[in-house]
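Lab notes, practical 5.
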Amino acid sequence: MIAAGEFLAEGVGRLQLSHPERELCARLLEDLIGEEPRSAAVAGTAEEELLSAVRGAALDDRLLLRAAHHLTARLPRRLVAALWDIRYTEALAALVVSGAPNLGKFGPTPPRWGASSHESIAKADRWLLLLCAELGDPVTWGYLQEGALVNDLLPMADRVEEDGENGSRLPMTLHVDEAFADERGDAFGLVCLRNDDRVPTRIAPLAAADLDREDAEVLRECRFVVEAHGDQRLRPILAGGPEAAVVRLDASASRAAPGDTRAARALEALLGELERVAVDVALKPGEVLLVDNHRCVHGRPGFRASFDGSDRWLRRLTVVRDLRPTSDRRGAGDLRVLR
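Output from the prediction step:
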């Protein structure tokens, strides 16, 4: 049984928190951020000591990132079960969590990434952290917004024409994050702070695509380039068996090897299927979208940004299921920035 309350598409669920569930989450956030725990059951316990140690800590604080795994035990069971349907059963490739506790006032959308007040978004970032902690351990890359653990997805006036997270006019084509990288995130979460114009995030689960078996076999062969930073290696687009396939794709940067018309047809067929099954999710403030970065591609249409503080503003946190494979790139201990 899948714990999500409803389906937006095959493999894409939505869970609406009930009032009691929302209150439970609100108490957890207040215990994590407030000056004193609201929950009487916490007083005098080891959990109170842990909360005291991380209260007011920066989001990338090592102890806070470890503590998040412990604190998720206080999330509603139905919510945790839905998150497990992404990580463990893989019954879901994406999940929208609605009905969040009050996350406060965020102020206007900043003109560029990294320009917001950390205090105004502290509760939203911690809500995102708690949900993502059930999917893995947070990481980031040094080249992403100067290594910030949580990234701002918002339009910037000097990047209007870019096909990227800080562009606006051009559509962001379907892709998995860091498609070119061998060590990319396993999942990510997006928390919505503002979306007055209802700009959607487009998501397409790979399992919903109806691919010809011969096309699928071609896509599993090293006949494609996923170009970035001059990398011209030939790689497969798909991996895994028919019932557990994963995808490495960036529609704007992926192409068949020169002269390989059969591979080009297979790639075109995949892109067409993903567009066919894609569903648009226009997040509302407080909603969180969680996505498996191996089994689901995402993008967004172009939109007209006003740059007056009212534009779409999301925050993104990426996680990996296992920190060990990236230890040589993160440095000593449990540092979370890959260099």
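Observations recorded by the TA: The chain has one domain: 6-206+276-338. Residues 6-206+276-338 form a domain with the Double-stranded beta-helix fold (CATH 3.60.130.10).
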